[in-house]
Amino acid sequence: MTDPQPLVSVIIPCRNEERTIGLVLDALGRQTYPRKRMEIIVSDGFSTDDTRGRVRGFIETHPKFPIRIIDNPGLTAPSALNAGVRASTGEIILRMDAHAVPDPDYVEQSVRALAETGCEGVGGMWDVQPGATGVVARAIAVAAGDPLAAGGVRYRVGGKPGEVDTVPFGVFRREVFDRVGFFNEQVPVNEDYEFFFRIRAAGGRIFFSPDIRSRYIARADLRSLARQYFLYGRQKAAMISFHPRSLRVRQVIPAVFVLSLAVLAFGSIFYPTLAILLGAEVAVYIAVCAGFSLWEALKNKAPMLAAVLPWVFACTHFSWGMGFWAGIAANFGRLFRSLTGGNGRLGKAGSFR
Asked: How confident is the model over 74-91, as pLDDT tens digits?
């Protein structure tokens, strides 16, 4: 980047986000990075609520703010991102989420990290906020940063700067899209991880910086959380059907756990001794959840978390695990071809143009 202040295209995929889109735009309007070196593209999937009205209202009250709305006929996050990239003109592409509120120096820190590290993509730390008042919403937010639910990923639990597999809301040099293609629209939920994998498979690097921070607004209730993690699990399976080598141990543990419970429960019908193993596994799981819940309750000085967090942990694990196996079933043919070398369209790294 020869220009010390390159043009940054901020792309926000959204659909029915009237509750949070204003918070995101307000935060982008307070960035320390020069406004004249930014463009904001809201890629909307034909929202049926007042999302577009909120964006238009913001434009009317901020006439000099460089923002525009484009249509996302595909209605998914990757199709929204692809439409935004194609409509953008910036040297740097910054993906923002309609549920995330970036810190005032978010853009500035991201541009600096790209320049200083020479990496193809960078990202930072989530500071997860409850999606509503009440102990359940708070427990969901706390669990999002706990290793038992988050799996130890650095952007959720914290850590030192360095190269990683994935970051939230990645920031990329534009030429990355010329090298590896666009986001895979056949992976509508796990599209960012799939994109990062192709970058790394092509020899690129992804860098985590704890100085790049955003507030992420978590789901407000267990039903929404279950739906979210079921989709996460399902789309993780879709993603590995393209890239089986991308699967990590931390990602497969909930799926193996759910499968083992189902197998032992079914097997105990014919072999009653298996019920002992089933009971032992459930007892160990309850003890682990209780231990992590007590630790978080003490750390956060909120005794009620000890009673609610086990349900949140169980919701994330079971929803993710069941979603994963549903995704395996839905994508089995492609996964089989990938494992046996029959999927020649993508090749080693893959490319989606």
From this structure: 989 999 999 999 999 999
